[in-house]
Structure formats: structure tokens, C-alpha cells
Amino acid sequence: MEAFTLDRLRRKAEKIFEPSQMQTGRVLEVRYWQLSTLIEIDLHLPFADMQQWTEIPYIKFKVASFTYRDYTPSGWDAETCTCTIFIDAAHNGPGSTWAKQLKKNDTVSYFKIGTTHQVAESTSAVIALGDESSLGHMLALQQMVMPAARFSGAVVMGNDDHRSQFSEFFRSPLQTVKRDDAYGHHSLIQWVIGQQYTLENTVFYLTGNNIMVSQMKKLLKLQGYNSCQINAKGFWS
Prior knowledge:
- It contains six helices and twelve strands.
- By secondary structure, it is α/β, with parallel strands linked by helices.
């Protein structure tokens, strides 16, 4: 009886305090990459005005009671209001738990579509560097950049199967790099050095775990790139 009462109180509180602008969408498909630690989810969001996505967006999804997580949509189609999100489920958390439970035709709830304020620079070379947690963000940047500017970059991945699956599933200039250190920044900087980028007309977009992003900023500055050439957004520690 006590558990039943607490559940009723929780649901009542949710109705009172939940954001009034909550919207819903539908799951079109769920694809588990091998080992099930990277989840690709296709969504139909009929109330989302994707024509207005001129900067890389994020969507604040409800993943549990009073719990929300931001995910970057990638590969969206404004005409059909469909998009894809990628969720790195290798670590425990409410977002990973939510993603693992989703199935085709499920309803998802979200209350905000915001912007990361990242937009493609007017430059000849845009370089994206990230990890599994930022895969959607990097693919969104690719959609915004190409074909107007030259786009390339690398995503560091610890799983051999994920690296091969990325190359198989996507036609992308992004390359996969094997993670040889805990957070991936040493692996990525070695990749950058090997590309021999010029110091002029090159802009880096760094996304992924906070430690990797902060360390990559320092390492790129040591290579001679200035702060104006580095856009950074960390996601988790």
C-alpha cells in the first residue's frame, strides 16, 4: 500500500511540475550496433519545425521521472519531420536505461528544442573531432557544412566492431580512430598531427567527453592554432 501511495504522489507531482510545453514524438526504428552499447534511434517529431535548424540543435528528452537528457539530432529531414539520435549506452545512467527500453512505435516526450550555438564557419576547412557520445553532433555538423565547405575529421572509438560498422553504415568523410588512452585525446591529436593541416583557414569543432575536449583544446593550441579556430562543447566527464 505504501509503495502504491508513493507512486500516486509521484505521478501527481509530475503532472503539476512537468513543463507545460511538453511535446511527443514516435519511435520509427531502433538499431543496436554490435555489443548493444551504441544505439541508433529514428524518430518522427511532428511538432518540430526543422526548417529553423540553422545551428546544430539539441532536444531535451524526458528519460525518467523529473529526469531529462539532451541529445543532438542528426540526418534530419524537415519535410517529413524525422531525425536520428545516437546514444552511447556503454556507461550506466538514466539516458542509457531509457534508450535500451525503447522499441518501434513507442512514444517519446521532450519539452525543449534548443541550439548549441554551433554553426558552420565560413572557411575552407572544417575539422570535426569527437567520440562515441558526440557522433550525432558530428554528423549534424557534416549535414550543415557539406557541400559548401571542405569537411573532414575523426571520431575516436574504443570498440573495434563500432569502428568497422561506422565505415560500413555511413558515407562520411569522418574517419574512425582507435582509442589508445582513457579519454581519447592522445589518440586524436596523433591523428591530427598525421593530417598535416595548415594553420590558416582551418576551424576545429571538438565534441565529446569533457576531459577529451579540454585536453584537445590545449594540445591544438600547442600545435599553433588559436582560440578563434577552436569551437568546443563537452558532454560528460
